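Q: Convert this sequence to structure tokens.
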Amino acid sequence: MQKPPDVYFNLWKQQLACVPESIWKHVDMEILVLADNQLSEISEQIRGLKKLRTLDLGHNKLTQVPEALGDLDSLSNFLYLHDNELTALPASLGRLKKLRYLNISDNLFSELPECVLCLESLVELRADDNRLTTIPDSIAQLTRLRELHLRNNQLTSLPESVGTLLELRQLDLRGNPLIQLPAAIAELPKLEKLDLRWVSTLELPPWITSLEARGCLVYF
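A:
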């Protein structure tokens, strides 16, 4: 069933250099797609879209996102920020306590933004193709996380606290220069897939066989 036009706005691939001012007047909007444009900034006026549940800003030229995103209390389904030029995120995003999916892949992050680690409802986090060198211990705060995608970063290890992510089903570490992995991964009760392809620096730990023995798919 098609969404009524006052709820769903799709401005995908419209060659927009800026968001039309008229957009901010649609305060009942629930889904806003601005992907694949030429946007370099988003107005603070976005804070007026209090009913927004999904926001897609992927494939643009953003170097920052506004503090106002943290005021979108209803943002619960998807937030796409991938394929931009972001190096940081505002602390205000940590207020998005209902958000379940976040994609910050293909940006310029050298560390996982602290605000991301406050998103307690996250089920899926995608941070592929950045410049991450470490994952903080506070990743343990994401207790509902089912999928963690970290492909093509600069990670040499993961913290032991990954072992507290008891809902985790998929862990993608492809293309990282890993040297060691915590044995706590083997104890993750719901892990279904561990992807270690394109990792040439890691000597597989002995606990990998126990993961495979209980049905977890391990790719290397």
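The chain has a mean pLDDT of 96.
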